[in-house]
Amino acid sequence: MTTSDPSYDFAVGTSFDPNAGPGAHAAATGPAASGCPVGGGAGAVRLAGASYQQTPTELYRSLRREHGPVAPVLLDGDVPAWLVLGYSELSYVTTHDELFARDSRRWNQWDSIPPDWPLMPFVGYQPSVLFTEGDEHRRRAGVITEALEGVDQFELARDCRRIADRLIAGFSGSGRTELMHSYVHALPMRAVVQMCGMPVSGEDTQRLVDDLRISLDAGEGDDPVAAYGRVGDRLRQLVTDKRAAPGPDVTSRMVTHEAGLTDEEIVQDLISVIAAAQQPTANWICNALRLLLTDERFAVNVSGGRLSVGEALNEVLWLDTPTQNFIGRWAVRDTQLGGRHIRAGDCLVLGLAAANTDPEIWPESYVGAENSAHLSFSSGEHRCPYPAPLLADVMARTAVETLLEHLPDLMLAVEPDELSWRPSIWMRGLSELPVQFSPVAQ
């Protein structure tokens, strides 16, 4: 039985109407109804503030000392949740869907969540692959996988190289630039929209990317819910266009797939694909460049050193993973995890960055980049679908290598400790990356 059936048993003592809004099910049994404490009781830490902006690893270390591998935390508006910090605990959560599932309608806190809650784009139920389970998830994820498998990695690398060349030409003569705006975010954005069959540039495309950024990582004064709505409207038009005239792109392959997804299913899954490809890949590029430009281990080989680029990219996935935390999973029934009593309907935030630096897997505080057993792409059935990580690697590697080949004497324009991280508990990336180099005549 799939989650589309209204009689689906959510193990919280109630039947479920999939067409009802999230607040309609607040009467479900569990901690919210019984008055028992949920994650976020005594000693709960707010997931916000300067600690997350500059030194999240110190915060994770402190949480481990005080709470162990699963810590009580407070989300925006002091909404309680659990942060899974341990590598083995996070692996357990992501590989046991029968205990920790993705459908957010299970949440026992919906009666206290306002409709304009900043995290609504993350947790508000949508007919998206992100919230599906069982056979339905495998059907939807299968369509995405096959659509992405149609992307030729050599062609993608060629396209990324062309995009990189054009972007670099726009600032290489000046001797200085701010890379986050002029290069890091622009390259994966153009590559992803091209993969999906949209124009590589233009005002319409730029608005889409800006709205995706706001919906994923809103700044002060932004409206993430409204931005998410605009993203959906733009992609609905794209799906309509591709039904009328399919082409050699990801959207067309999803539209024409034999699984017969509805337009709204495709729109929601496209949002997942584009968001997962653009923002995290941009921050992966950013964090690798910062490592290459600030760590003396890479200084000797940085100019055209392809091996060191690969090492930097992999090390970043361990130490500065682009997606720090992901919300999340919802407990199907009362259970135990990391010494904590998790109640049915509790929300678990996946602490990907914390798990990657868990001292239980890296004795003596040593974290190496020699293997790829990190959890940056999550694990289990809901991990990033193959071949998404390979395509992201093509974009990131091409972006870094091309920049260093064009500007071999690239260096920071500020001291390393002057770099500031974006104030986000979800994404890990710099606000700005100012650099200088010898001007290149065009």
Description:
The chain has one domain: Cytochrome P450 (Cytochrome p450). Helix 7 packs parallel to helix 17, helix 11 packs across helix 13 and helix 13 packs across helix 17. It has a 6-stranded mixed sheet with strand order 1-2-3-9-6-4. Strands 5-11-10 form a 3-stranded antiparallel sheet. A two-stranded antiparallel ribbon has the order 7-8. The protein is built from 17 helices and 11 strands. The chain has 442 residues and is an alpha+beta fold.
Number of domains: 1
Spell the H/E element sequence: HEHHEEHEHHHEHHHHHHHHEEEEHHEE
Known CATH architecture: Orthogonal Bundle
| Alpha plus pi helix count | 17
> Helix coverage percent of residues?
40-55%
Shape, per Cα inertia axes: globular
Within the largest sheet, what's the order of strands? 1-2-3-9-6-4
Largest sheet: 6 strands, mixed
Rg on CA atoms, Å: 22 Å
Beta-strand segment tally: 11
- Name given to the CATH homologous superfamily: Cytochrome P450
Proportion of residues in β-strands: 5-15%
Mean pLDDT: 85
Distance between the termini: 62 Å
Question: According to CATH, what is the class?
Answer: Mainly Alpha
Provide the structure class: alpha+beta
CATH topology: Cytochrome p450
Family: Belongs to the cytochrome P450 family.
InterPro entries: Cyt_P450_B, Cyt_P450_sf
Protein name: Cytochrome P450
GO molecular function, one term: monooxygenase activity
